[in-house]
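thread from #wetlab-drylab

HS: before we spend reagent money on co-crystallization trials with iron/sulfur cluster, can we at least see a predicted complex? here's what I'd submit
DV: go for it
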Amino acid sequence: MARKILLHDIDVANLTDFNVYRNLGGYTAVEKMFKNFTPDQLTEEVKKSGLRGRGGAGFPTGLKWSFLDKKTDKPRYFVCNFDESEPGTFKDRHIGQLNPHQLIEGMILGSYALGVRTAYVYIRGELFYVLKIIEKAIEEAYQNGFLGENIKGSAYSLDLYCQPGAGAYICGEETALLESLEGKRGNPRIKPPFPAVVGLYGCPTVVNNVETIASLPWIINNGAEAYAAIGTEKSKGTKLISACGHINKPGVYEIELGLPVEEFIYSDEYCGGIRNGNKLKAVIAGGSSVPILPAELILKTAKGEPRLLSYESLEEGGFETGTMLGSGGFIVMDDTTCMVKSLLTYARFYHHESCGQCSPCREGTGWMENILRRIDTGKGSMKDIDLLVHIAKHVEGNTICPLGDAAAWPVASAIRHFREEFEEHIKLQQCRFTK
Ligand SMILES: Cc1cc2nc3c(=O)[nH]c(=O)nc-3n(C[C@H](O)[C@H](O)[C@H](O)COP(=O)(O)O)c2cc1C
Ligand code: SF4
């Protein structure tokens, strides 16, 4: 059985209750923090652990913290990104709903390291039931002296607020999130300057993902070296994978990074194989924004090595034959799946969620959706396939934020790996799977 860092107590009854969490050793990392670490030492400890951001980009967490502008006398902010709207990704709500104190404890640790007096959890509007759970847990943390003035008799004080968004996917992009938190329309900002220098209300800010923050108590309790001993050279610790699609056991799984993809899909400990004994056709391994891979390339790299659930193994081969770990939203498709139709679903999503600030994304996402719908309804022509590739190429890298890339990569990769299926759809003027 894999070691559990994030989900070790997840099945304990009433874990959302302060006393239950506390009796299982909760908030001891905060006590240890006051005894053993200065803020800079805590940042160093997180750097040593090798923890990488779990929101999608995989940026090293301690390094990100060290970029925070500490020369200015402006206040600093720490913000938890709980927007979680990426199709296929549903891991953060698992923590928020079942173990909110783990997240709050992580927020205290991060805030202390960054010298922050006020911190926020920005939560997706649709997760209102989770917001209520977190707000109750915050109240309990105040009542028990872990939030507020002079935490546990120390000189350190922290206020923590939970703020819902209005349900826009783009508000998960960290600068759009900050705009939204300031009460404005959630449009991504042009970078630089980065939030570490000009963030919330123009002040130095760090934004981290829920899972990243929830990993901190274990790291402080057990030490950076213990965390770094789990995983692979470039992918340390454990990762939550939300698995969905045509598998026997969809759900949220905690894996040790470096687990073979084949074991994850077929073993009973995880996905339990493909439904109805069907054949695996393709996987989107890191949430809908990453390139799709056909069965042969998700199980083995182009070099013939077993593909692992790690940052470096999934990236092996670049975008020609590889993909990304992203947020860990693992979408499995069996051999009854129509690639045109599933790609149309994603294209429709990105078109709908584009904030419209930059023309390649605003227009390109709409064009890609329209062309895919044309092909799907039997009215496409062969020229449409190259047109899609052309549009995707011109959206990628030419936009203010990575939503443009996220819309382009699934299109480019689906055509790269399943071109014949698009051609067949156009020739037949209908879908082979539903005719
Ligand atoms: C369109 C878009 C949506 C995003 N949505 C989320 C999200 O819901 N949650 C999240 O943590 N990061 C999301 N990100 C990534 C954030 O911008 C940011 O990199 C992340 O919150 C940083 O946290 P980490 O370093 O702990 O990963 C999104 C990025 C983009 C471009
Ligand atoms: S890439 Fe799309 S979502 Fe991002 S800023 Fe431009 S228009 Fe908005």
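DV: The first strand starts at residue 77 and ends at 82.
HS: ok that's useful, forwarding to the group
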